[in-house]
Amino acid sequence: MRITTFALLAAAPLAAGAAHAADIDAASKIDAVTVFPDGAMVSRLAELSLPEGASTVLIRGLPAVIDPASVRVEATADGELAIGAVETRLSPGETRPALDPALEAKITALKEEQDKVAARLDALEVKRKSIVRFSELDPTKIGKDERTLDPASWKTAWDTVGDELARVNEDSRVVRARRTELAEQITALEQARQTPAKPGAPKRDVTIAVSANGPLKAGLTLTYRVSHAAWTPRYDARLDTGGKGRPATLDLVRRAEITQRTGEDWDQATLSVSTVRTAGGTAAPEVTPLIVSFDDIVVPFGAGAAAERAAPRAPMSAAAPPPAPLADQKQLAARPVLATLEAGAFQANFKVPGRVSVPRDGSPKSFTLSTAHLTPELIARTSPALDPSAFLDVAFVQNEEAPLLPGEVNIHRDGVYVGKGRFPLVAPGDKATLGAGRDDRIKVTRVPLRQKDNEPGWINSSRTQVTEFKTTVKNLHDTPIRITVTDRLPVSDVNQISVEPLSTNTPATDKSVGDKRGVLAWSYDLAAGDARDIRLGWRLRWPGDRDIFMRTEPK
């Protein structure tokens, strides 16, 4: 008969004599780990034999980063078993073992020889410099009592200088080689030193009160949450822009990069990653009243003529050449091993196949979670007021059951790496957009048509300024493409400054892009080889005794 029992964190009444319970040390091993974006849930297994009556099972040496409130125990047994109180307590950590005396003596001797070699090298360098200085002296002034050296002795002097310089250089070469050899030996011996845990680093022990009606064998499952562990989404996006008669395609690979510094190795464990966040709170924040009042600080409008400063958009990373094709076309590409998706109404778990190990030192470990083959929509976008370039955007519906979590995307377009992008949080069923680099076959020009200022006169006390631009977009592709041009009108924050759009403006298809004031967009399909003009202008009017300036709102 196997009976499954469940633990309670509060104390439960056990058989009489619990005060004299025996302590039983249970050896355990990690069986499964579920990694969250901000922690991990670890499951340990322990098999043990229990005597009749009350006992206390001890599982020692667990990480100090365990959340005590998350500890749970389940058990199966071949007899009747009850579980009472489950407690955690801190215990002293491991102490550093004594160093190997022979190894340390050898390292010390090598370092002493290293110091002697350095001193010898310094002496040789001084000697070499002295010989060089002597060789540069005038031979007519180096004789005894500064008399001219006999020319017959010049050759002997030159030979002596040359021989000594060659010998010093050779000695220096030998000494430098020895210095390098000593450094390599010292490095190798220092790496051979043991690297134990930090002295005195605390651990956690878990005590489990149990009571058996007779001798039995039991299996305990201990689960707990730890911090200092996380997984980060990583994505690979490979876009094929297609061509005449061939649609564009997008291959999206979802990966998980796992790191952990919990203090214990996850050795040959069943691994899963979950989209649930366990440390961000469980309820929405409470909204408090918003109070508005006068601000006594006056912000000046500034001086000088109207000016606009805007930083250009940062360029994408430089492209790298595509990998060389295989010489033998009969070879087959390796098929990635994908995780199994278990999606629920409020979360998604990816189970990595097989058993894997993740070390405690924070080294990242990457796994492929899923792949998707999509038919995207291609849109060329340009913001000519900031950058006279067009950028290709890829839009698609996220139809997987798991959301796309915020993460970095490596973007390849037609086999060429074009840079890194980033996904925001994209829920299933939402539309995702990803930049795919500059589109050099869309030519964009933006030129000023007029800039006219009217100074105030005797009758009219206001100043006006009329500004107008023309943007021309031409499609140099051999296929039609969707174009979106984004630009902006100034927006006034005070009543004394008015902004009037010009009647010659090209009507915008979106008059408030992203609910941002004054930001307009024109979207249209542009045939191959066609061009289209967009005119945008405004008239500013403000009091003649004031100066104005323009600023951009922060993103």
Could you characterize what this model shows?
It is flat, with a radius of gyration of 38 Å. Among the domains are: 3-94 and 198-227, no CATH class; 101-191, Helix Hairpins (Orthogonal Bundle), CATH 1.10.287; 442-543, Sandwich (Immunoglobulin-like), CATH 2.60.40. The strands form five sheets. Strands 1, 3, 4, 6, 9, 12, 13, 14 and 15 form a nine-stranded mixed beta sheet that branches. The model is unreliable at 1-20 and 297-329 (pLDDT under 50). 13% of the residues lie in helices and 42% in strands. It contains two helices and 27 strands.
List keywords for this structure.
555 residues; mainly beta; Helix Hairpins; Immunoglobulin-like; 9-stranded mixed β-sheet; 5-stranded mixed β-sheet; 2 helices; 27 strands; flat; disordered N terminus
Strand element count: 27
Main β-sheet description: 9 strands, mixed
Question: How many distinct helices?
Answer: 2
Q: How far is the first residue's CA from the last residue's CA?
A: 66 Å
Give Rg in angstroms. 38 Å
- Could you name the ranges where pLDDT drops below 50 across 5 or more consecutive residues? 1-20, 297-329
Task: Indicate the topology.
Blueprint: E1 3-6, E2 22-25, E3 28-36, E4 39-50, E5 53-62, E6 72-77, E7 81-91, H1 101-135, H2 154-191, E8 203-212, E9 216-226, E10 229-240, E11 249-260, E12 266-274, E13 340-343, E14 348-351, E15 356-358, E16 365-374, E17 377-383, E18 387-397, E19 407-413, E20 416-423, E21 431-438, E22 442-454, E23 462-475, E24 481-488, E25 498-501, E26 519-526, E27 531-543
Parallel strand pairs: 2-5, 3-12, 10-19, 17-24
Antiparallel strand pairs: 1-6, 3-4, 4-9, 5-8, 6-9, 7-8, 10-11, 11-16, 12-14, 12-15, 13-14, 17-18, 18-21, 19-20, 22-23, 23-27, 24-26, 25-27
